[in-house]
Amino acid sequence: MAGVGPSVLAGLGVDGAFDVLGLPAARKVCLLVVDGLGWELLRAHARDAPFLASLAGEPIASGFPSTTATSLASLGTGRLAGEHGVVGYTFAVEGELLNVLGWHRQGEGLDLRERLVPEEVQPGRTVFEQAVAGGVPVRLVAPREIAKSGLTRAVLRGGEVRGVYALGDLISQVLQALRESDRMLCYAYHADLDGIGHGYGPGSDAWCHQLGVVDHLAETIANGLPPDAMLVVTADHGMVAAAEDDRIDFDTEPDLQYGVRVLGGEGRVRYLYADAAAVDDVVDNWRGVLESRAQVLRRQEAIDQGWFGPRIADGVRARIGDVVVAARGSTVVVRSKAESRLSRFVGHHGSLTDAEQLVPLLVAANGRGGGS
To answer: What are the structural domains of the chain?
Structure first.
């Protein structure tokens, strides 16, 4: 995922950018991110997405954790979580448990954009800022409600944001942007497939119908591309479905609560911020309860295994839990009281399985699959 932005910029001729993924060159690019479109899901349901399934492409890894906030940060900065510091859906920073998607205090909804300034939480240059500095205009086409969000400011800043209401104006805004200049990078984001997957489960009837809508979206954009433009389709993560007996409830399990001051992350990957004297006990308790259903590692063990990339930037280490829990199979660690809505989700993501990690990188030009 961290290689997508630099590779697109290299194809656009931006100085200092390197193509690490073998993408074709083009003067104009639409980078379409479909939230929740895992590679394994696309292959399993290719009949519902004939256009996407026909495109040339390969799977790439989303990075850890395989969740929207982290993956978009990796795409938007060209760096992995250990460097950009957006280490999950929720994580501890400056005494707050930050919900990155809403940029609010987890569990309370308190807006933290003034206390935790997004441009300071993630201060590194984005690929969009690099594109503009290299003479390539950037348009970001995304739902209006996230156009000025903390996450957008933190990891997608640099371009002109164009908020949209639905798929109709998303398509219109993308095709308009690609005709506004002789060079252009247009980032477009579609979230509904992920939402359907959470509510009904990946591969459900509703999910498959939504996949068909996404396929039509991509095909319509591809068919409307100017002659010198290219469509690149990718995603932020895949998804797994959790059954009732896959759920382990932190809020009703005293052994899991012992020594844990703050619980971050989400159902498939949890950060345990523990009392200093209790870290070993926390590790033992979680391994005892979860057994083979998850990997339970101390922070340094997870870092040493490269989960967050080869480098950990100053200040990022403390954002990672003292203990990191990555679920196996379809296990989820829920919070029935503190996170009641999330706990009812059918579809989940965040961990290290191929179903969550692998996402497509597909290329089309003028409605036809291109090389990659």
So the answer is: 4-241+353-369 (3.40.720.10), 244-346 (3.30.1360.180)
